[in-house]
Amino acid sequence: MGESILNNKRILAVDDEPDILETLEDLLEDYSGLVLDKAQDYETGYHLIRSWTYDAVILDIMGVRGFDLLNAAVHLGFPAVMLTAHALSAESLKKSIEMGARAYIPKEKMMDIAQFLEDVLTLEHRSSLARMFQRLGDSFNAKFG
Predict the structure, then answer these.
(1) Per-domain boundaries in the chain
(2) Which DSSP letter does residue 76 get?
(3) What value does the mean pLDDT of the chain take?
């Protein structure tokens, strides 16, 4: 990869599915100097959030107490991206945004994670949410009507 806002960033991904963490690692491996810390459970994720300074965190909702981790990340000032399949609902979307998540991404759109992370890192909070809705409008309309 050439110049990117993702170069030399430290990102945490917490998901109870090892294949999701592996896919995220594959999707982000070409960014120069990017460090991706991974956790498969709440306890490890919480420990890492409290131990390091992250440029962004990617959190699953189900299986790892994602909302609790979101609260901790936002409290420490880390931009958070919610990545979910099982908890994809209007209620979870609303709760995530109200709690301070910068993006809420269905796992089937995970291949675009770099674009979402770039938006989260470069745009103001409201602008990153607007861009998320612009990119995912069709998906959200299909899911939520």
Answers:
(1) 10-139
(2) T
(3) 89
